[in-house]
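[job 4471] stage=fold_predict status=RUNNING
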Amino acid sequence: DRFLVEQLAGDLMPAASDAARAEQLIATGYLAIGTKSHNARGRAQFQMDLADEQIDAITQGMLGLTVACARCHDHKFDPIPQKDYYAVAGIFLSTDTRYGTFEAQGNNHPAELVKLPTDAGVPLGPTMNTQQRSLLASAKERAEAEAVRAAELRAQARTARQRGEEPPNLQQQLVRARAAEGLNRNLESILERYDASGKPTEANLLAMGAAERTRSVNARMLDRGELDKPGETVPRGFVQLISDGDEPKITKGSGRLEFAEWIAEEENPLTARVWANRVWLHLFGKGLVPTPDNFGMSGQQPTDPALLDHLASRLIANGWSTKKLIREIVLSRAYAMSSAFDGRAASIDPDNTLFWRMPKKRLEAEAIRDSMLLTAGLLDLRQPTGSRIAFAEGGLRGPQQERLMSYISGNADNHRSVYLPIARDRVPESLEVFDFAEPAFVTGQRDVTNVPTQALYLMNSAEIARIADAFAARVVEGASEEAARITLAFELAYGRKPTGAEIRACREFLDDFKAAYTREQAASGKGDAQPAPRRGNMRERARARMDAARAAPAGEASSAAPKHPAYSALCQALLLSGEFRSVD
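[job 4471] inference complete, writing structure tokens
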């Protein structure tokens, strides 16, 4: 419950130390990371859109209600009047959301960042490497020159207007000038936070977050949500549907702290149920309420209301400890049941809504990637210092942005997936291909698809090839006999020993590969012969990798070519299987 309060109002809570203060300020980044309509006409429209996004994320994520549907009219399905929407909107219109951007073309609504206490012990962030700094510095030089030109254009425009003249294309030139000035300020902000060697300085102690405005406001109801049709002023408040009249009154400030404490209150009928339902969803693949973001009339009814109530009560009784709730569920008979099919049970409950068996489910994208790295012995369990996304705050465009973003992608990064930087339009391919949540929206339950692009990625990706090579090296170094190596590969990938038929199939695969490899080596008469052809796309993957190794500059070929091509292909085949990517 404190976790929720800190995300909504951590800046308004007392802190025992600078370290705690910094954590609470950072927590409010939840309010700042959403999408922004930076091209909105006028500041008032932008602020309303920003508050709308915050209301949508909070009410769907924490209350399972689609309150944002009442922006233009009373809710079509739930008893949420438009007045309630604007009561909550006033709270966030009275909040200064600090997302940290500079005014520029495409960004008409800049904002500051939250400054963190210097004695908080917060890491300053990662070191900027030479390529990144060089790219940003050269872009800065060009932006400075354009900014000087922008100042000249602005002076020319003033002089022309004093004479009653309007030079052709002046407005277009001024727009480009404004963009150059914004780019220059943005790059300057990034570079000044790092010293000449690329190490971060105390100027990097900034975070996205929220703060109180100097003046609180009450929102006016807008007919059809349009700014030019204002109606009555609505006092800041909460959603009447789940209020019992005892909710705190907002007498000063934005009311965010009171709102947060009301959401996290034990008597709130939704918060604990929404939370418990999400825990159940992650463990079983679907929630007791199949629509985790919508507990309203347009959502689906709970399949077992009594069980949902019980789990919510246990969550509260155990001090809102998610860990304790998970422990109770995974030690239950329901979680321990087999995934085996039962015809009699299926005839009664064909969709398994009552969980008469454990549903078979595919691992989430993060778990697939982390499992592959762990199997290969590559997974780095340490928390990285900061995020490389700090080097790409929208300061570049076009090819320069492509180059900079390539430095911060998830490829060849062995940290856990939860630590990978996520830019909304730059989700790492290893996650995106396996139905990673769309970062621009509230997504309580992800899609689970089985499409060709997933198999193609696992067969042809350079990142998977790198992982398979490391997996093969681990297998070869871990045992000396072929049968023992095959057994080790299965134990690492599947947590079980292979059957006799599987050992025979793997031996045939390795023998075929080695024989073909020898034939091609003899036919080519070269020491750097191509790898063995293999069935289907596996053959093409191996050949392409060896071709790339031969084409690589001197000194790089040895690292590009697999040391154990036959075992690398076998290990990749194990990673490709459905057994590796699913839980029974």
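[job 4471] summary: The chain has 23 helices and eight strands.
[job 4471] exit 0
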